[in-house]
Amino acid sequence: PAPSSLIEKCRKELQKKLPLYMIPQQFLILEKLPLNQNEKVDKRALEDALQTQLAQQAIILGGDLNMYCYN
Question: Could you tell me if 41 and 33 are in contact, meaning their C-beta atoms sit under 8 angstroms apart?
Fold first, then answer.
């Protein structure tokens, strides 16, 4: 499915189970989680992926990355 339809589907499912304030405003779609040498989730790589996505959105919107706040 298209990323936007997948995000909407996830958001609708979360709305059934969580209060609105607990539903993320940002979703990051990855094919698989980045792993480190010990086969644990690489948190730095996840942060890099999020920063890359935010930078791409800033370029598309013509904004500045520093203007974005995310949870």
Answer: yes
